[in-house]
């Protein structure tokens, strides 16, 4: 099982960082308000970035490190990762379309 760290762009220009074995599934859970309390208050708009990690432990450590960053640094870091599911998250989000 491969763990990934992900960063979501949320309403109010907020960012959310989490870990999952299936980032698209987790994004959809956040969209359906069955995710974290933060994303219930600030619904996700898109997956900014996703990075696979060697283990759950590594993903948790990286998540912690990312959460210590400023929003600007988080955004820059997530956007520097190789593209994965960003387009899919935008296509599945009604908030992105008018």
Protein traits:
single chain, 98 residues, alpha+beta, GIY-YIG endonuclease, three-stranded antiparallel sheet, 5 helices, 43% helix, GIY-YIG_endonuc_sf, GIY-YIG_endonuc
**Share in helix:** 40-55%
Structural class: alpha+beta
Side-by-side strand order of the widest sheet: 2-1-3
Number of domains: 1
CATH level-1 class: Alpha Beta
Please tell me about this protein's structure.
It contains five helices and three strands, in the order E-E-H-H-E-H-H-H. It is α+β, with helices and mostly antiparallel strands. It has a single domain (about 5-95), classed as GIY-YIG endonuclease (3-Layer(aba) Sandwich). The protein has a three-stranded antiparallel β-sheet with strand order 2-1-3, sandwiched between helices. The N and C termini lie far apart (about 35 Å).
């Amino acid at each position: 099982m491969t763990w990934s760290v992900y960063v979501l762009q949320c309403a109010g220009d907020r960012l959310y960082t989490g870990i999952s074995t299936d980032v698209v599934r987790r994004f959809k859970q956040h969209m359906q308000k069955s995710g974290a309390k933060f994303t219930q208050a600030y619904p996700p708009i898109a997956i900014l970035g996703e990075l696979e990690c060697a283990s759950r432990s590594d993903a948790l450590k990286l998540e912690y490190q990312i959460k210590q960053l400023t929003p600007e640094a988080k955004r820059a870091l997530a956007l520097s990762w190789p593209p994965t599911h960003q387009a899919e998250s935008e296509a599945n989000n009604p908030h992105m379309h008018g």
